[in-house]
Amino acid sequence: MSMKETSVVDVGGVKIGGDNPIVVQSMTNTDTRDPEATIDQINRLVDHGCELVRVAVPDEEAARALKKIIAGSPVPIIADIHYSPDLALMALDAGVAKLRLNPGNITLEREVRRIANAASARSIPIRVGVNSGSLDQEIIDEYGRTAAGMVASAEREIRLLEDQGFNDIIVSLKSSEVNITVDSNRIFADRYDYPLHLGVTEAGGGRSGLVKSAIGIGTMLGEGIGDTVRVSLTGDPVEEVGTAYDILRALDLRNHGIDIVSCPTCGRTEIDVQSLGKYLEMNMGDVTDSIRVALMGCSVNGIGEAGSSNVGVVGTENGGLLYVDGKYMETIEDDDIELMAEQIEESVRNYLNRGE
Amino acid sequence: MSMKETSVVDVGGVKIGGDNPIVVQSMTNTDTRDPEATIDQINRLVDHGCELVRVAVPDEEAARALKKIIAGSPVPIIADIHYSPDLALMALDAGVAKLRLNPGNITLEREVRRIANAASARSIPIRVGVNSGSLDQEIIDEYGRTAAGMVASAEREIRLLEDQGFNDIIVSLKSSEVNITVDSNRIFADRYDYPLHLGVTEAGGGRSGLVKSAIGIGTMLGEGIGDTVRVSLTGDPVEEVGTAYDILRALDLRNHGIDIVSCPTCGRTEIDVQSLGKYLEMNMGDVTDSIRVALMGCSVNGIGEAGSSNVGVVGTENGGLLYVDGKYMETIEDDDIELMAEQIEESVRNYLNRGE
Fold this sequence. Notes:
The structure is a homodimer.
Chain A: E1 9-11, E2 14-16, E3 23-27, H1 35-47, E4 52-56, H2 60-72, E5 77-81, H3 85-94, E6 98-101, H4 109-121, E7 126-131, H5 137-143, H6 147-163, E8 169-174, H7 178-191, E9 196-198, H8 206-222, E10 228-229, H9 238-250, E11 258-262, H10 273-283, E12 291-296, H11 299-307, E13 311-316, E14 319-324, E15 327-332, H12 337-352
Helix pairs in contact in A: 1-2, 2-3, 3-4, 4-6, 5-6, 6-7, 7-8, 8-9, 10-12
């Protein structure tokens, strides 16, 4: 993997770009005007590993709530700004760690200049956040909703910021189409050193939202493009954080939590792999250390997978063969699946605590 | 996207390779010795768009059940063979449309020769199916469980087949690690023209299984590698078929069913996008025609997304603005979310039936 070397931007102490680890972020979907509900959700996001949180700032009441939210948040807060330079200035006054500006609806030179100067005075970075759903009409007329149009939209805003001597910049180029998202980021990464914030926008919920996000973000990260990730899923944003780590773990870019390797089951399966997997997912979400656990229905691939995992269980007609670091330990009875699952959980927890 | 031109293999009338559409396949997890249960599951898979089905053949009783399964299946059946050349010959006698052989456990020259001759006499193709969990010990000793080792395992088996003049071959290289899966397929595609069957093995269930499969398979397809897809997920194989189509649709390689574009919701959201999306997913799984539906919480990206979708709904404080082919039609009340969802479903169904 050839990593693209980007500049480093500091967001309230969290470094994005260069050779820093890929930062995981999300966005609240509470009403920002309700600081308590918003802080509650931020805390849940942080419990699951979220490192930066963005909040919508649709009006002045929301902007006024920012101070309380920032005071109550354990991680830096980013303000999401559309249309209004005044809301951007209010957010800066409240102490946000980054601004996201949409170059599709904050386009006037004097507006961008005002925001850049205020952000510069406070050393606050700006993300130029292009979204295919809100491109400026001029761009649509010239390019359509294409990768070239998205890059042109970012470039125009970047030039306005650079003209003010401002280059504390992060960029995102998000389309609801995976191919356009990937292409626009490739074009941009080829031309600029600014760190890239990755995401497929409006990916939707459920299975297809996960699939679109994983392919889009995964393809770019696999090419060495990207410095921070925000997965956009319809639903509880905690899922966005988990999915971001799933993507980073799948590519060996960051390790976080249990990596369950488990077979699809077939006519050979001897143990209830699906129930065991569900049990571990449900009961071990608190684990943030990295560990690989194999749950395999039979010995065909089971011995190999268990042998190359930290903890492994392989189905046989006599029960599950338990392996730890590739060594056979004992055979676990599979008559009671709950008991079996608890025994596996215990083995995993013992493994995680082995150094203590 | 540069498409890799591969040779074409005919699996019971389904063509894999060349410029044929990527074929979607899955595998039953019923007991193959129970033909009724297996045929029931095959029919469910086919209802969801599955084009080829593989069944495990762990013993002679399973091999004897194949004839009945093949007679009852609306799509060609593939036999999954490990260890035993005799089971491969029994499967050929029963009339399977393809054999999958594991080169990690069917390695002897005279065994491969016997199978190749019998398959050749019936014009039945063979998939050389390498799996990182069941590599031959000789390969592991020389290469470890690496991409190079997986390719070497495939090459050894291919040479044995080619020595018999047999080249009706499909190849798969599956690791439980995404990076190794992708790398081994890249190496292979660079050296051979045989069609590739893609999959990430033992991906697990739930979110992380989807993510691993989507990144691995999606990255390869994005590079023009791959001719047929089998997603391996712990659980109901119907999910594997849906996920395969989600991947192909995300990359614009095959269109199938409703593509829901929907925002992650935030402090600006005016309508219950998540419930609407769930309703459409639950109630419109029967749709196989291709249609893009946008469900957007507010106007920021909503107007743009609705404008470039077949049917779109954009939240405002007065209800949902309904767009059809980019044109505003009416405003739908959002007081009763069930009623609102039904109205959107009706618009989508009307759109799909517009030509009739």
